[in-house]
Amino acid sequence: MAAVMPAPARSRLFLSGNEAVARAVWESGCRVAAAYPGTPSTEMLEEISGYPDIYAEWSVNEKVSLEVAIGAAYAGSRAFCAMKHVGMNVASDALMTLTLTGVIGGLVIAIADDVGLSSSQNEQDSRFWGRFAHLPMFEPADSQEAYEMTKAAFDLSERFQCPVILRLTTRICHVKALVTVGERSAHAAAGFKKDVARWVMTPAGAGRRIPLMFEREKALRGEAEDSVLNFVTEGADKRVGFVTSGPATMHVRESFPDAPVLKLGFSCPLPLERIRTFAATVDKLVVAEEVEPLIEMELKANGIACLGKDILPRQGELAPHVLKPAIAKLLGEPVPQNLAAPTAVFPRPPTMCVACPHLGVYYTLSQLKNITISGDIGCYTLGAGHPWNALDTTISMGASMGIAMGLDKGRGDSDKDKRILAVIGDSTFMHMGMQGLLDIVYNKGNVTVLLLDNRAVGMTGGQNNPGNGRDLYGNPAPRVDFAKLVESLGVKPERIHVVDPYLLPVLFKTIREETKIPEVSVIITNQPCVLVDDYKQQQPFKVIDDKCTGCGNCVEVGCPAIHVMRREKAIKPSGKEVELQFVQIETAACTGCGLCVQPCAPDAIVKVAAGEPVSILKRH
Amino acid sequence: MEQQATNILVVGIGGQGVMTATEILAEAAIALGNDAKKTEVAGMAQRGGVVSSHLRFGPKVLSPQITAGTADLLLAFEAAEALRWCHMLRPGGLVLMNTAKLVPPVVNIGLYDYPADPVAEIRSHGYQVRAFDAQAIAMELGEIKLGNTVMLGALGDHLPFPAEVLLEAIVKRFSARKPQLVELNRRAFEAGRAAAKAASAERIAA
User: Fold this and answer.
1) DSSP tag of A242
2) Residues of chain B numbered 24-63 and touching chain A (CB < 8 Å)
3) Angle between helices B182-205 and B163-177 (to 10 degrees)
4) What is the pTM of this model?
5) B1 in a structural domain
6) What interface predicted TM-score (ipTM) does this complex get?
7) With an 8 Å Cβ cutoff, are B125 and A340 in contact?
8) From CA A90, how far away is CA A398, in angstroms rounded?
9) Is residue B83 part of a domain?
10) Structural domains of chain B, count
11) Is A555 in the B-facing interface, judged by CB distances under 8 Å?
12) What CATH number should be reported for the domain holding residue B114?
């Protein structure tokens, strides 16, 4: 993204939480920002790259991005790092000792939780990190707060010389609301000052800094007690008072406009005395927090009576339709009923795109027998779904490698003849997969690795990465040669194949042969994601009606441009009843990859002639 | 008691322009001095998944989410999606819907059926329906991407503010990004507006 002139101060802008944070990062004079893409956090760095006077990068993983930000903060620059919740699991090795060294330049770490699981493998609560690492944490409830708290976080970070965690959720990151923005103030780098006792964390050095961390935490608690980020919205109905944080605050205020609400923006360390005072003004105290009972447990441990997860769910968002019945029940009032139940309609799970290069891979895998496929995180996780059903495990970034190794070494008798495959994308491989492959090579595992190089971080929107030769700004960057890389990790040259995933016979033959050889192989596919500029669309295909025999082979490719227009029952010569599926291709959607042509026995699929109009299928 | 917010739910499938349409609606509401919040769950929407975009506007908006049974209007870019989301409407609320059907692979491979008559089923729940083929209208104008402007046009006469304010927001957006498309979008907007009106008349005639 090219830098453009930022909107002037005092503009009232309609910004998502991510955009609001990016604006505040720029206004705060931050000089270095780093991240690895991950829903719902991705847009923060994308937006930052549009501002002038700030260096931004896509790092190869969240740990590296945090380390880049730490280095910049050690050098006295203001620095920023963003990640999704699971990203902090990767980065936490750095975080847990960073809390001992602290920083010079302000360092803000934005962690975006996916409460409600819009696009994640778990729903873990990142607020634990504040407690675990003894670091201050801010929790905005909308875009304006996200903007203000980011600026306040930089100031607090510099004052206490420690990083500040900004905890967001999907319902902050991806909600647009009005934000009044301000001026930018530049912050020059203070410069790195050699201080071995502080920057080199040996056991002796760390031992001396642990007490300082606890002193700092005590001072921060005092700061939270007085912070303007914690405030009460008065209410006349004192039967229930709420302690809230994050987006749950808005849901509470929406649902119970007359109830007193203590909103915690500076929520860690917890301002206990402030809460104790508030609790004394209401009959019952209810903690509304997403998702774990962190505040609640701390209040109970400190003798402040409250309700929380005993009446509210410990999973998902605390939206009004969740809060209202729970509180009505607590007050002994009639529980509001849902006016209408949703109508049952077929599910519409995410699918792979028309002409996606992964389609060829999963079609091929779905035709192979006696295999176990260890999968990974990206668009290709969709291979677990219909019609392929060709992915057997997914847990965390890069895990396809180690899990495949374990599936190999931990074989039971029933798996004796199983071939073990691992499927991983280019970006995930560079993020955390390389080490796993090295482990397979080093420990002589029998795994066939499919490295799906589509030259993009596909699932999060096609971001650049070290595999496609472009940086965050779209500028040329050195490009990883995957074949050379895996060879240098120790994979034998004759076990490395670079294959075009649109050539089904070659792909099928290569995978089948490599799975038979009892050592590690790497098959690299080499066609780009259809959503990035590298992809070149071709003349579409169409189905000749008279020629389609209804065999349904093309349907098994799983391309969303292929539609079954008519079904018929037929009796095979063997006497077996089969369902025929007569198809059409939506020519307006087809980009001519040619995958469906290959399994079509009657040659019913042909190129649309040049100049012939394309059409949308009519379904009435 | 604060004045209630207006709740509009816009639904469809990833790639149809649902989120952009809602954003333009929000811009129109904001231009009139309203507070506004827009939210959607669309993590994997680019992969053909369901997109539902909530817009709430009024003097002051707190929660960005529309609670089931409280939406004033449902703008549905696809027939089955209109059916999926109609319970979000307040009783007797209005659905403005595209009759075009986008059939997902799970239906193509025979795992599920596409509802036989979404319009009738929505009506049977007591909601008002204005149904029209936005896809066909867009194709007649020569560009399927105009579908979302057609949909916004259909909404034009059902908002708590004049249709012209919404049209102005569309024109403003295209003037800044693709000035050559302003005129075509104006036509798409008017075509959508006319289609919603005609759908209503047909219903009365029937």
Assistant:
1) E
2) 26-27, 30, 35-50, 61-63
3) 150
4) 0.95
5) no
6) 0.94
7) yes
8) 11
9) yes
10) 1
11) yes
12) 3.40.920.10
